[in-house]
Structure formats: structure tokens, C-alpha cells
Design goal:
By secondary structure, the protein is α+β, with helices and mostly antiparallel strands. The protein has helices at residues 2-18, 22-33, 38-44, 51-90, 110-124, 138-141, 174-182, 222-237, 296-300, 321-329, 336-339, 342-345, and strands at 128-129, 135-137, 161-163, 166-168, 187-196, 207-217, 243-250, 253-262, 285-294, 313-320. 41% of the residues lie in helices and 19% in strands. The protein binds phenylalanine.
């Protein structure tokens, strides 16, 4: 009997030590210690043995059961640990691997960046920023700006009419009159904004952006206009720039000028390799804006707001934001600004 117990114990110990998984171990527990296993049966039969055998057999069987239980427990703990390790290493995240590509960071549209750059220059010169409506009355867009009834800009081919007396503004100049109605002189404002004309080709889009400028005071002269625009040209296109004024015509300024800035790419119209400068096309000048001294006829419309044309005078100018951005960044087609192709847009800013 004692020998049988020892054999059972040895066999079970060997099997438990060799168990390769917790499932296998559970099977061994049932096989060697379960209700129908031989060792527990022997234990249960101890009381039927002759009295002198009960003690030694009971003790041996009990020790064998306890030893096997302890062994199973330790082996179970070992197997749990190995299985956890295996799961963990199969599951491991390598934190040193590169992550998903970072989401692209947005940036300002080149037109927004250019508008802000222009605003910064004029804010630095003491101008305030004003705004006005994009849907404008014919009065502010044309009449108060001294456009005669037969002026070509008033044609339906040049202007989007909403009704007979309401238009999508064709320029930011109507805000000149609105601002003078709202504020007495002296007045120094710039007006960035969207304007609309029915043109569409590589250098015209039906919608584009302007920055209007207006300075009205008692002693503002054309020299102030030139000095202001020179400061602007140097801030945006470089310290060396010069400006020149050429006679022009606008209904609401007199005299009127077109303003050129000296080319920032070449000195004499040619590139170092002898080819013609592609920015100024060899002319050494770049046309950047229209300007002039405010026509007294415009002041007549706001005379009762403190703008007596015998007492105040002023200059005004209007520049295209797209034009400045195209020149400065050598963009060849205006429509690129509105296609919103990120391959174009992400080159700037
Ligand atoms: N409003 C004019 C245009 O759009 C530009 C301009 C503004 C000219 C102010 C003179 C003074 O062409």
C-alpha cells in the first residue's frame, strides 16, 4: 500500500512538473486529485484498513496529497507568469517606432497673410482699419464718387447689379464716403475688402481684394501721398525701392496718378544672364496702384459732416492685394489663389 502511494506520488509529481499549460495542469489535477482519482480513494479507504496500517497509510497518502496540491499551485503560478509574459511580449508596443504622420498644420492663405502685412504697414503709419459692405448702393459706389452717369464702370458689363440701385461693390472706394459720414476730419483710414467685377482670365477674377487708403486733414498734400506710398513700397518690396507717380484719371481724385514701384528683381530690366527681367518685363517699373488727391466734388457729398472742400484736403489710393502678392511671390496666374490646391498654398507662410 505504501509503495503504491509512493508510486502514485512520483508519477503525479513528474507529470505536474512537465505540464506545459494551465489547461494541461487542470487536467492533471482532476486525474490525480479528483473525486475518482486513486490517491483520494485510498485516503477515503483508510478507515477500513486494519488498525495498525491506518496510521502509516493515512499519513503517507495525506502527505502525498498535500505535496501534490502544493506542487500544482506552484506550477500554476509559474505557468501563469510565463503565459502573461508571452501575452505581454506578443502585445508589446514599440514606443520608439515613428508614429502616424503628424496631421498637417494649416497656415494662413497667402492673400490673408498679404492683407495683414499691408495692414501692419499702414497701422504703423498711424492709419486705422475701416470696413464697409460688399453689397453697396449705386450712390456710394458711383454717384458720391463723382462718376458721371455715362461712366463706363457703371455699365452692366463692368458691374454686377443686384437691382437698379444696388451693386456688388466694384472697389473699396465707397467706404471713403461712408467713413467721412461717420467720422469728422482728420481721418486716416485703410479699408481692406472684397470687390467684384465681371472679368475672368489669368490676371482677373470676378472677385478680388483691395486695400483702400484715405487721409483727410487740413494740410495733406500730394507729397504726403508719395511719402506714404514710398514707405509702403519699401516695407513690402524692400528698402531700396523707389516709387514714381504717372498722370492718370479717376472720377473721384484730381489730380489722379498711377503709382509704380521700382523692380525688386533687376536694376536695368535685365537678369544677370542677359535675359529680360520677367517681373518688370524689362521696364524696371511695376505698376502697383491707383491714387490721387480727393476730388472736391466728393467732399461736397459730406460737407455737412465737417468736410468743407475749402478747408480740408486729402489723398486716396487703392491697391489690389492679389497684385501685391503676385508681384512679391512671383505667382503667374491669379486663379491659383482661388483653386485652393494645397500644393500651391503650402509654399507660402
Ligand atoms: N478705386 C480705384 C480702382 O478700383 C482705385 C483708386 C482708389 C484710385 C483711390 C484712386 C483713389 O481702380
Amino acid at each position: 500500500m505504501l509503495e503504491r502511494i509512493a508510486t502514485l506520488r512520483r508519477e503525479a509529481e513528474a507529470a505536474i512538473a512537465a505540464a506545459g499549460s494551465s489547461a494541461e495542469l487542470e487536467e492533471l489535477r482532476v486525474r490525480h486529485l479528483g473525486r475518482r482519482a486513486e490517491l483520494p480513494n485510498l485516503l477515503r479507504g483508510v478507515r477500513d484498513l486494519p488498525p495498525e496500517e491506518r496510521g502509516p497509510v493515512g499519513q503517507a497518502a495525506n502527505q502525498a496529497r498535500q505535496a501534490l496540491e502544493g506542487l500544482i499551485e506552484r506550477r500554476a503560478a509559474e505557468l501563469d507568469a510565463t503565459e502573461l509574459d508571452a501575452r505581454l511580449s506578443a502585445d508589446r508596443v514599440d514606443v520608439t517606432l515613428p508614429g502616424d504622420p503628424a496631421p498637417p498644420v494649416g497656415r494662413l492663405h497667402l492673400l490673408t497673410a498679404t492683407r495683414r502685412e499691408i495692414e501692419d504697414v499702414f497701422l504703423g503709419l498711424g492709419f486705422d482699419v475701416a470696413e464697409g459692405p460688399e453689397i453697396e448702393s449705386v450712390y456710394y459706389n458711383f454717384d458720391a464718387l463723382n462718376h458721371p452717369p455715362d461712366h463706363p464702370a457703371r455699365e452692366e458689363t463692368d458691374t454686377f447689379y443686384v437691382s437698379d440701385d444696388v451693386v456688388l461693390r466694384t472697389h473699396t472706394s465707397p467706404v471713403q464716403v461712408r467713413a467721412m459720414e461717420a467720422h469728422p476730419p482728420p481721418l486716416y483710414i485703410i479699408v481692406p475688402g472684397r470687390v467684384f467685377r465681371p472679368d475672368s482670365d489669368a490676371t482677373h477674377t470676378p472677385q478680388f481684394h483691395q486695400v483702400e487708403g484715405l487721409a483727410v486733414d487740413e494740410d495733406v498734400t500730394m507729397a504726403d501721398l508719395q511719402g506714404t506710398l514710398l514707405a509702403f513700397a519699401r516695407a513690402v518690396f524692400g528698402d531700396e525701392r523707389q516709387v514714381r507717380l504717372r498722370p492718370h484719371n479717376f472720377p473721384f481724385t484730381e489730380p489722379s496718378v498711377e503709382v509704380d514701384v521700382s523692380c525688386f528683381r533687376c536694376r536695368d530690366g535685365f537678369m544677370p544672364d542677359g535675359s529680360r527681367c520677367r517681373i518688370c518685363k524689362g521696364s524696371t517699373w511695376l505698376e502697383i496702384l491707383g491714387a490721387g488727391m480727393v476730388d472736391p466734388n466728393v467732399f461736397e457729398h459730406v460737407r455737412e459732416h465737417g468736410y468743407d472742400p475749402d478747408r480740408v484736403q486729402g489723398f486716396a489710393f487703392g491697391l489690389g492685394i492679389e497684385r501685391v502678392a503676385m508681384l512679391k511671390h512671383e505667382v503667374s496666374d491669379l486663379r491659383l489663389f482661388y483653386d485652393n490646391d494645397v500644393r500651391f498654398l503650402e509654399q507660402f507662410g
